[in-house]
Amino acid sequence: MTPRIGCRDLAVRAGGRTILSVDALDVGAGETLAVLGANGAGKSTLVRALALLTSRERGTVLLDGRPAIRAAVRSAVAAVLQRPILRRGTVAANAASGLVMRGLRRAEALRRAEPWLHRLGAADLADRDARGLSGGETQRVALARALAVGPRVLILDEPFAALDATTRTDLIADLQVVLADLGTATILVTHDRDEAAALADRTALLVDGSLRQIGATSTVLDQPADADCARLVGFTNVLPPELTGLRGTVVARPEHCTPVPPGDSPPPDTFVTRGRVDRTVPLGGVTRIDVSTDAGSLACLVTGEAPDGITPGATVAVAVAAERSRTVHDAADLVAPARP
Q1: Whether 155 and 204 share a structural domain
Q2: What are the helix and strand counts (H, E) for the chain?
Q3: Those residues with Cβ within 8 angstroms of residue 276's Cβ, 6 or more apart along the chain or in another chain
Q4: How would DSSP label each residue in 12-37?
Q5: What's the domain range around 283?
Q6: Which domain CATH number covers 166?
Q7: pTM for the complete prediction?
Q8: Each residue of 97-153: pLDDT tens digit?
């Protein structure tokens, strides 16, 4: 299958330095690729470069396997941003506005946009003034507007970041159903691994402007390639060999690290390191416990309150679930492939 959109040897410079460098990337028709990275990693720069909206230092953007030109990309790509802008007028008119801009008559544009308002749960808003919508309602209309034009490439740039938890969950669930029926190549820019897990077939991890790891979403989220990738997907505790006595650097999620009070035995099937409790932070149903070690701070998450004896200043053992931990490579040893 020919990839719908992609790039080769892509580089973008700003402020006198290269801020993005991607050897190769392809997204196929009907596929959703999540681009996961921290703030400033180059996620938005990547999608702007693929949409030919920013100058490139070098490289080629491909559309249907051929070098892309601006006019072809403009007709093929639709985007939904973190804070979309709706025009004056009704929700229905806004949902149809992309089609009108592409030359359709207003009546025909309204007819084509209407089913997308239904599919995204916004049909009852059609006659409302678009300027009075909530954040979640605005995103639903923006998605309907983007999908109504029949894009061959859909770019979702942090579309859920400004939404409350319930609204975000509902919209992700609805969008999951919609994307499953499309033949569109979708690129989801996010810093949230749960969004990638819910929506993406593959996930790419972007670190300091470089594509560090790419593959099936379930694999990337569970088998990070190096410590930087591990932190991106929630394995925030990085334990070097000198701390564990094991071969290689080990990473673990906070929920798989248990502080053990003095005198107590660690749980079975764990390995243990030691440190001093810096703080305990109740988070409503769970408690975060930060423990300082010779190699930095470790975060632990326990259900309920902190166990007896786990107080700031106490010397404790931290038991790491061996089966839940992962061994990672040094970043310098990695060369990320363009395809899994």
Answers
A1: yes
A2: 10, 18
A3: 291, 292, 313, 314, 315, 316
A4: EEETTEEEEEEEEEEE-TT-EEEEE-
A5: 235-328
A6: 3.40.50.300
A7: 0.91
A8: 999 999 999 999 999 999 999 999 999 999 999 989 999 999 999 999 999 999 999
